[in-house]
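Figure caption, in words: inputs first, then the predicted bound structure.
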Amino acid sequence: MEQDVFVERFGGVFEHSPFIAARAYEAGLIDEPLTVESVHDALSAIFRTASPDEKLGVLRAHPDLAGKLAIAGELTEDSRNEQAGAGLDRLSADEHGRFTALNSAYTEKFGFPFIIAVRGLTKDDILSAFESRIGNAAETEFATACREVEKIARLRLTSLLPG
Ligand code: GUN
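Bound structure (guanine present):
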């Protein structure tokens, strides 16, 4: 597969961060046949060697859960499906208020949005993870967010590739 085709197809696996796919390709890490595992290993290896600033940029490229972009209908298709899959597009006013308050407090504390691989989680699971993780130390939470980004990438790849 040519680099531009690869980046076009897999550039969004790390949200709004096609440089990850481009670097993986340029590093010669992409071998046919493409599988979830092989592509996930390659993209994650590149993500792990990215600079702290680049990682922070990837974290910041994520929209808030049940945030303004979601309400405005401006999410990527993957984000929209993930958020809707967890019922975040059908919150009561009270639940919505909790998300809004937590989103602000979390971003204020850490400088990036709360990221969690939501597939298989209910909105209550997500709220309790949110309430617990907001108490973490900054370094712990940065590492946790990076792990969640890799999990989200794996879930996205399962829709694009055979196992
Ligand atoms: N978890 C799964 N998808 C998303 C997303 O788009 N944004 C955030 N913040 N977390 C997610």
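The chain has a mean pLDDT of 96.
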